[in-house]
Design a protein that fits this description.
It contains twelve helices and 15 strands. It is an alpha/beta fold.
Length: about 425
């Protein structure tokens, strides 16, 4: 068999799988709340396991809860080609972020079985644990341990807002495997994902060929002021942590705007204590998020923010602590894998463009171990990490078609 534009996945079947998975951990507005290591996460894993085992795929689970489903190749000594993403979601997440990459990989397996296509290399579809990092920071935690970025014991000790440990919760839901993390061989990996931005839809492109990934600094900032009555405390005598927050929010924006067009910065996580209408806060905690595909720019943004934030705090007479809670360097994806994706899009007749991923993904860590690349499909209004996140069946199908072709080109169709 040769690769041609008639070889495609079953779009209806892929869509039905996405909709069925979305019934687990439903959100309040039609999205999903299936956070890492919750009971809902466990149920989503069981459904994925059921579907994969129906395709006669062999399951392995490592000690970080990463799930791997194996389809044999004709050369069992050859390293496998991987596909995958994540099933966990944000607290108010959509139905497609991450999930499309996992179930798109499953649909590739179903298509290969349905057409009785054999490959030289084995193929593996995987679900990486805790990509989102919303319950247990940092993001991409388990793929980070797999790639040797983080120590497993350190990851096990991550706690959520209630003080629950990652390692304890992994055992509680029954998904702590016995395979040593990071020991398996990988020839290459492809990750299908929604864009999480507006470019593909605006330009009417079917496929984003991801050439690079932005680097990231997450800086957890703790401001310490003095709790005091908002009505009876003279303005000049205040140690106002919330005023420091306001000035630093503007600083984050100024730092990012100084490095346009590619750099971004923002604050999405803020806690104010005691959070009372008539009490000046004694403490404010927030996370500054800086991203850029240029390492020098990324580090420069971090350094400027740290320097000027401390100056703001000193001027206001408040305390400040800055701690790094997440970081990864900009990523350049493998040229061979990128070419396989671009060739697949052209073979199938799908419009495409090169794109830089603005978000972190498990592929960014795996890229340190083996050749890796990403495929992106559009999402409506570029909206993601939001229950209103939406894509179309055709967008999902086109992305999975390209995934199928890229994987087959890399895994090699057996005679």
């Amino acid at each position: 068999m040769t690769l041609n534009n008639n070889l495609k996945i079953n779009r209806d079947r892929l869509w039905d799988s996405l909709m069925e998975m979305a019934q687990i951990g439903p959100g309040v507005r039609g999205g999903n709340n299936r956070q890492t290591l919750t009971d809902e996460d466990a149920k989503g894993r069981k459904l994925f396991q059921k579907w994969c085992e129906a395709e006669n795929l062999t399951m392995s689970v490592d000690t970080m809860g990463n799930m791997f489903f194996y389809r044999a190749g004709t050369d069992e000594n050859a390293d496998p080609v991987y596909m995958g993403s994540h099933l966990d979601t944000q607290p108010t997440g959509g139905k497609y972020d991450g999930v499309l990459g996992v179930l798109g990989g499953l649909e590739v397996m179903r298509t290969l079985n349905e057409l009785n296509i054999k490959t030289k290399r084995p193929i593996v579809v995987c679900n990486w644990t805790n990509e989102e990092g919303t319950r247990f920071a940092p993001a991409m935690l388990a793929s980070g341990v797999f790639a040797g970025i983080h120590e497993q014991d350190w990851a096990y000790d991550r706690t959520d807002a209630k003080g629950l440990r990652f390692g304890d919760e992994l055992e509680r839901i029954g998904w702590k495997g016995d395979e040593p993390v990071g020991e398996r061989k990988i020839h290459s990996m492809y990750e299908l994902h929604i864009e999480q931005g507006p470019i593909l839809e605006i330009e009417n492109k079917d496929i984003g060929v991801v050439t690079h990934g932005q680097g990231l600094w997450w800086l957890d900032v703790t401001l310490t002021g003095k709790e005091a009555h908002t009505g009876s405390t003279p303005m000049q005598m205040r140690k106002n942590a919330s005023l420091g927050l306001g000035k630093m929010l503007q600083l984050v924006n100024d730092v990012a705007m100084a490095h346009q067009p590619d750099a971004v910065g923002g604050v999405g996580h803020i806690n104010v204590y005691p959070n009372s209408r008539n009490v000046l806060p004694g403490q404010v905690v927030f996370t500054a998020d800086f991203r850029s595909p240029d390492r020098a720019v990324l580090d420069g943004m971090k350094e400027r923010f740290e320097r000027e934030a401390k100056e703001i705090a000193a001027d206001l007479g408040i305390g400040i602590e800055i701690e790094v809670s997440g970081h990864f360097d900009p990523v350049t994806f493998d040229e061979g894998c990128v070419k396989a994706i671009r060739d697949a899009a052209e073979r199938l007749g799908y419009s495409h463009r090169n794109i830089v991923s603005g978000a972190g993904h498990d592929a960014c860590w795996v890229n340190r171990l083996a050749p890796t690349a990403m495929i992106m499909c559009p999402c409506v209004d570029g909206l993601s990490h939001n229950e209103d996140e939406e894509i179309t069946k055709d967008w999902a199908g086109a992305g999975a078609d390209v995934l199928l072709h890229a994987v087959l080109e890399t895994a090699q169709i057996a005679p």
